[in-house]
Design a protein that fits this description.
This protein is mainly α. The protein contains five helices and no strands. It folds into two domains: 52 residues; 40 residues, no CATH class. The chain starts with a helix and ends in a 14-residue tail after the last helix. This is PetM family of cytochrome b6f complex subunit 7.
Length: 107
């Protein structure tokens, strides 16, 4: 059941990554220059006012260093790349385990 959920969420992230890639490509063609949507803009579009509450919550509950070097770098990255990487990682985690014992085909 967990593998199914990991694969399902992974496919959703891969699809979202391809959609973001197409949107970024259309924006780049329209602007005659490279343009991509960072993860921060995607989060602002999804959660709106709650986006401003993410930084204080992480600094207060987890650790202040997690916000500044790590999460700010991820938030500046292109949303398509982050979604594709996260999706492929979830698909890799949800793959079927390989058989430990099999038939040897070499002689």
């Amino acid at each position: 059941m967990v593998r199914f959920l990991l694969r399902l969420i992974g496919y959703v992230f891969v699809a979202a990554g391809f959609v973001a890639l197409v949107i970024d490509g259309a924006r780049s063609i329209a602007n005659a220059g490279l343009r991509f949507m960072p993860v921060s803009e995607a989060l602002i579009a999804l959660v709106q006012e709650r986006y401003q509450l993410i930084q204080p919550a992480i600094e207060r509950n987890i650790h202040p260093w997690l916000w500044d070097p790590l999460l700010l770098t991820v938030l500046r990255a292109p949303a398509a790349v982050v979604a594709l990487l996260l999706g492929f990682a979830l698909l890799w985690l949800g793959r079927r385990p390989e058989a430990a014992i099999g038939i040897v085909t070499r002689r």
